[in-house]
Amino acid sequence: MTDTPRTEFDAELQDRLMRYAAIDSQSDATTGVTPSTECQWDMLRLLEQELTEIGAADVELTDYGVVLATVPGTAEGPTIGFLAHVDTAPQFNATSVKPRVIDGYNGGDITYPDDVDLVLSPKDHPYLGTKVGHDIITASGTTLLGGDDKAGVAIIMTMARHLLNAQGAQHPTLRIAFTPDEEIGCGFDNRLAEDLKVDFAYTLDGGVVGEIVYESFSADGAVVTVTGVSIHPGYAKDKMVNAAHLASKIIQTLPQATMQPETTEGDQGFIHVTDMNGGSSEMELKFILRDFELEGLAAKGDLLRQICAAVQASEPRAKITCEITPQYRNMRYWLENDMTPVELARAACVDNGVEVLSVPIRGGTDGSRLTEMGIPTPNIFTGMQCIHGPKEWISVQDMALATNVCLSLVQRAV
């Protein structure tokens, strides 16, 4: 077994993540309110209370569902923000999470008490094989863990508690923000950019150790509505127009071997249908469109519109609409003009013997929106792996490395 060094933060990080993960805070895109679920308020109120207890200043839970707080500076420097989101992904069950810790992982297969057929193996997940001797946190097999992004919450809280109690630590003023509904792309309120009051910021929402990400997808959402002609099916000959059939035709006309999430990787974008709702009289299809470049994103929107128009032309009695709405943009477009926060994070990694890995993420963060609004916000690793599913796991020691990188970062900023 590898002799894995322990740090002063391990126990606190483990305790925080285990406690936070056990709190249901899954978001729900169907409610139309922000935060989208009442349980997120429970998590936000807890963090408001804990920040007050550790001595943070200006602690506030806003009416738009964000916890804000200040760690007062002890030296001159830029005001730096640290953000994480409290909601967990709606793609898999996240109710009644039972987190558990595997002390000193031995390098073998990990099984789950609540699903005996589920196995997490380093054969399928090589990164796990590099964590021999680490303390691994997983759920019990029937839920996701919620390390995305409660690991980020735990890291920021641990860093804040340390700095508020440290004697003689030199750091500028820090601003903390815990946000809702990141997983469903509708928790970012435009007031946050003004209320945060920072020169630049970081999201703690990344994966493998060393990830310092400043490139993300650009993203649009699309809603296609198909209205058919409804009539009693017994008397439908030459009269009915079945909206479900036309909706299926739209989906089947999309490229199947390319431009799907399951057929793309690297710098390839996609068109992904996320929801189909309705019946024979009317159907609603929801899509997400993703590409690293705006030209590619626009082309995907044009393709979806063209397919809708072609299906409309095949059945003029139907009505098909396609509405495309911007969601977020590749943060690289702004960060490449001033790489100061990226270089600061990279230098902090080097301080801690961490090899820097900067690759585009096939997704987005709250930092994508903040960067677009004028607050440069790259993304820092937490260690989270296999997110949005029952095999989700994280190393306590990876979280400790992220904590130390953040501490080195703020010390370098003075």
Describe this structure in words.
The chain has 414 residues and is an alpha+beta fold. It is built from eleven helices and 16 strands. The strands form four sheets. Strands 1-2-8-3-9-15-10 form a seven-stranded mixed β-sheet. Strands 12-13-11-14 form a four-stranded antiparallel β-sheet. A hairpin with a 5-residue loop joins strand 1 and strand 2. Helix 1 crosses helix 4, helix 4 crosses helix 11 (396-412) and helix 9 crosses helix 11. The protein starts with 9 loop residues before the first helix and ends with a helix. The mean pLDDT is 95.
Features:
31% helix; 11 helices; 16 strands
> Mind describing the biggest β-sheet?
7 strands, mixed
What characteristic shape results from the CA principal axes? globular
Radius of gyration: 23 Å
Classification by helices and strands: alpha+beta
The strand count comes to 16
Oligomer: single chain
Poorly predicted spans: none
Strand arrangement, major sheet:
1-2-8-3-9-15-10
Number of helices: 11
Task: Tell me the β content.
Answer: 15-25%
Helicity, in percent?
Answer: 25-40%
Spatial gap, N to C terminus: 40 Å
Q: Give the helices and strands as they follow along the chain.
A: HHEEEEEEHEHEHEEEHEEHEHHHEEH
Mean pLDDT: 95
List the helices and strands and how they pair.
Layout: H1 10-21, H2 38-53, E1 57-61, E2 67-71, E3 80-85, E4 100-102, E5 110-112, E6 115-120, H3 126-129, E7 136-138, H4 147-165, E8 174-179, H5 191-196, E9 200-206, E10 212-213, E11 218-227, H6 243-253, E12 270-278, E13 282-291, H7 294-314, E14 319-328, H8 332-335, H9 340-351, H10 366-372, E15 379-381, E16 393-395, H11 396-412
Parallel strand pairs: 3-8, 3-9, 9-15
Antiparallel strand pairs: 1-2, 2-8, 4-7, 5-6, 7-16, 10-15, 11-13, 11-14, 12-13
